[in-house]
Amino acid sequence: MTYRIVTIDGPAGAGKTTVSKQLAATLGCVYVDTGALYRGVAYEIDRQKIDWQDEAELNRFLESLDLGFKMTGQDLALVSSGKDITSFIRTPEITMLASATSALPAVRQALLGIQKHIAATRDAVFEGRDMGTAVFPDAPFKFFLFADLGVRARRRHDELGTNDAELEKVQAQMAKRDKDDESRKTNPLKPAPDAVSIDSTHMTVDQVVTKMQDIIEKA
Q1: Which of 71, 83, 106, 219 is deepest in the core (most CB within 10 A)?
Q2: Is CATH 3.40.50.300 what the domain over 5-211 is classified as, yes or no?
Q3: Phi/psi at 58 (nearest 5 deg)?
Q4: What is the spatial distance between Cα 142 and Cα 125, in angstroms, rounded to a whole number?
């Protein structure tokens, strides 16, 4: 049986998470936050004090890693060695570490199997940065969601609930992450050749989801 796979890629703050969750609910699919996997790796690297720039140490760590998802209602919780770590992976420090370590081929290869297994067992909407280009190049529905940097920084700032003085810092961190993601040698952030690119700068979540749904249902 072939399952329906939808990929939504794009930079941080473009609205991927909210859009992906809502689209998955609308289509009756499971929502998969692939960024959570990389954050999970970063969390364990930080927790275990792994020298991730030491190739041998990193490989030993990845071989022992027991990371995956479990269903909690309609959502997937991230579990490491049986422990739900979903609530620990959203700090700015883990975000930046995840951006750095996600560029490593060994890390990307280690997580590929988890993503492929989900796609082989259920309809799913995959949110990430290289879902349509590297992980699921044959997916029938691919989207690339983007927005102006200033708008994305404001969205993330509001999401974090920080004061206005922190907005400039949030924007600087986001710009650095964009540069890192777009310039990495392994699977850089870019739209797949056959992806539908959507600029969410002046669109509501409902408008983006409706546009995606129309494209999927008309196929």
Answers
A1: 106
A2: yes
A3: -65, -45
A4: 10
